[in-house]
Write a structure and sequence with these properties.
The protein has 1 helix and 19 strands. The protein is mainly beta. The strands form 6 sheets. Strands 14, 15, 17, 18 and 19 form a 5-stranded antiparallel β-sheet that branches.
Length: about 240
């Protein structure tokens, strides 16, 4: 929150015995202190009596229009699944006039998400962005780091088939490996953002791509805590 003294912005130095009226009460008496995030935008009027307080003396009327400052816009990537030996860049904005505060302690517009864990882990990265008007916005993204075991992935790849490819609005998955209550099909876009996740509960299953744009997507198969098929070795094209 940032305070602004409206009195200091009035022209020709009016007397300091006037009063303010407007959409919301101002603090500071004649100073008319407007606080972002607390006061309401609109027209504020300062009434003073520079020529005397007698009823026959004219009053001076000044006004200031407070225009609401827009909140900052944050466009983080979607929740994403990557291998534990991979990294992904998370960007909260591009404006140099904004301030950025991440829950990691970073104060830059972008950070690189990574892990040193040797087991599956999940980390949420949250950021608060503040603009010049003192307005703030907060957003967060969760990155799932999965252990990618090359030998097991290669063996398991033979168990999965996906058709048709290219596809339009859906594909059929044929998975003849083991099924648990946590065997998941995950679809990632070209930037590595997770756009779809669905539990596999049968050997043959239809996966619908409702609302997805045309393009190349990578898919991954995770069974329990093990990534059976890495996303960097599989893809499907949507037409």
């Amino acid at each position: 929150m940032i305070p602004y003294r409206f009195f200091n912005a009035l022209p020709n130095a009016p007397v300091n015995s006037g009063t303010w009226q407007g959409p919301s009460p101002l603090s500071g008496g004649y100073l008319g202190t407007f606080i972002t995030g607390t006061n309401t935008g609109g027209t504020y009027i300062y009434t003073s009596s520079p020529y005397g307080v007698d009823s026959t003396c004219p009053q001076r009327i000044d006004s200031i229009v407070a225009v609401p400052f827009p909140a900052p816009v944050i466009n983080l990537i979607n929740d994403t699944v990557i291998c534990t030996n991979q990294t992904v860049v998370i960007t909260a904005g591009t404006s140099a006039s904004n301030t950025y505060n991440w829950n990691t302690g970073a104060t830059t517009a972008s950070i690189t998400a990574s892990t040193t864990s040797s087991v599956n882990t999940s980390t949420t990265y949250a950021v608060t962005v503040t603009n010049q008007g003192g307005c703030t916005e907060t957003d967060a993204v969760t990155i799932d780091f999965i252990v990618c075991s090359g030998m097991e992935e290669n063996e398991s790849a033979a168990h999965l088939s996906l058709f048709p490819n290219p596809a339009t609005d859906q594909v059929q998955i044929h998975w003849n490996g083991s099924l648990t209550n946590d065997t998941r099909f995950i679809l990632l876009d070209a930037r590595g953002r997770k756009v779809l996740e669905e539990i596999l509960n049968s050997e043959f299953q239809i996966i619908r791509f409702n609302g997805l744009q045309n393009g190349i997507y990578h898919y991954s198969l995770i069974e329990g805590s093990i990534q059976k098929i890495p996303a960097n070795s599989t893809s499907v094209q949507l037409l």
